Amino acid sequence: MYLIILPRRLAKVIVNYYEKSKLLIRQVEIGDSVYLVSYIDPAKVLPYDLLKKVKIEKINIEQMKKILKSQEKSKKQKIFGEIKPGQKVVIINGPYRDMKGIINKVLPEGKCEVIVSVFGMPIPVTVQQTDLLTEESLPN
User: Fold this and answer.
1) Residue 46 contacts by C-beta under 8 Å, 6 or more apart in sequence?
2) What pLDDT was estimated at residue 43?
3) What is the CATH number of domain 2-77?
């Protein structure tokens, strides 16, 4: 198996190459990186200019399990249950991904209302608490 480590901004392009060839096993997102696992050597799938922008490692099943555990740990480190109104957050999943906002209300069932700016207008959106990171938890 091969592990391809790439920045999030390249993920969509590279995943498209793998989807065409139906060779992608798993996609895992941890922090700002995306990890793709494939049975096929990426050099046989990706064009040379993209190969220069990613890191490739051969891995075994045990290493893949560690990566999946890291993803679960990363999800648990998100601020589920610790948010309060007025707190600055970044949405990390869904249609408002990468948008910054302020917690307006904490709702039942692990959700909250976040005020984001869309074209300069404050818009309330409801998101899962696990889809948020506090501003303090982000790297500077």
Assistant:
1) 14, 17, 54
2) 80
3) 3.30.70
